[in-house]
């Protein structure tokens, strides 16, 4: 599983700016205004071969009340989910009483903490970090989140400080991935949509506890089994607690566990509740699946209790809100009674086979040439984009690398046309397809043309002629 890093600190110290830099996105709103971030924001990042999950939190105030109290509770939940905490402080504001209070809270929680002193651009970082040694959180690291200064060194310290449990999770995932014949399937969805019921139906036994209350366990459940001679590993993220262990009527599920289950899987089964339609959280989960590049199968549960008009409305909502994943097969099922559940296996196997398919360079190049001949790319500044050949660059998801001239100028609409063409011709169902464009470099760029002796003699004659004319 990928390690989880939580960003905490006072308002307006640059947590969202650092979040956007670490995830290479603009998902978190950034403005010179304290208290802009209120809820937890999740994102993925990668440095070298290391992947991680980042959690942005709201600012922790001196005396929280009202909405600020809710923001602090959200931040503490993120700290509880994290493997390591990055405490951000402001070099320009200096050490404050609020910084000392936050550091005290983090020490009580016993989480590994790395101290980052932000906004050191334009000043000596050694002088800017001097006062923060008194927090007792180790060596402060001066960074500029807006420009990325010092952030790579900060990440090195973060990975060095990750606890052994995070490394154990990585090794457990490596062991799962070492079995090439097993299909890893994650069952995800909002609380109380029937994920555990579906897992039990797929297994044919009461393997996980089912109870009619939304909630979640702390860890995902990995269940290996075999069906029709094929090995599977089901990853159940529902994990409804036993009745005796439920302390609240409704418990929030952790998006962290869902994201980690998606990363560990090869195919994701998204379970929706037909009675509730398609919620915003469902679209967020689909976004995480696409970002991770996993195969996708959509299971609309509790279908047996709907009338015809309600069924038509659900189908309409699916086409409107989830139309961007038209490659995914949709099944209308009843996990409780088993209707339609058996068909999920065919879609899972199809998505798995499509995600891991080997594609020859000759075949991909032929498809590219046919697509360009049928619909040429548009002109860019009066010059035609020339796409020459394509080859496979990766699997799960399928990555197709296209070489050509001005390839980086290919517009988004034409990229979508190429994706749809490759998917249709290669019959890639249930998996996203990614394209990467590379511009062919000029082998003679920056090189001087070496003249032959005959060319040199001719050049000398021309120079003598020019001098005579003058």
TrEMBL record:
Gene3D superfamilies: 3.30.300.20, P-loop containing nucleotide triphosphate hydrolases. Residues 3-166, 183-356 form the EngA-type G domain. GTP 2 binds at residues 189-196, 236-240, 301-304. GO terms for biological process: ribosome biogenesis. Keywords: GTP-binding, Nucleotide-binding, Repeat, Ribosome biogenesis. It comes from the Bacteria. GTP 1 binds at residues 9-16, 56-60, 118-121. PROSITE patterns: G_ENGA. Pfam families: KH_dom-like, MMR_HSR1. One of its GO terms (molecular function) is ribosome binding. Belongs to the TRAFAC class TrmE-Era-EngA-EngB-Septin-like GTPase superfamily. EngA (Der) GTPase family. HAMAP family: GTPase_Der (MF_00195). GTPase that plays an essential role in the late steps of ribosome biogenesis. Associates with the 50S ribosomal subunit. PANTHER family: GTPASE DER. This is GTPase Der. The lineage of its organism: Bacteria, Pseudomonadati, Pseudomonadota, Gammaproteobacteria, Chromatiales.
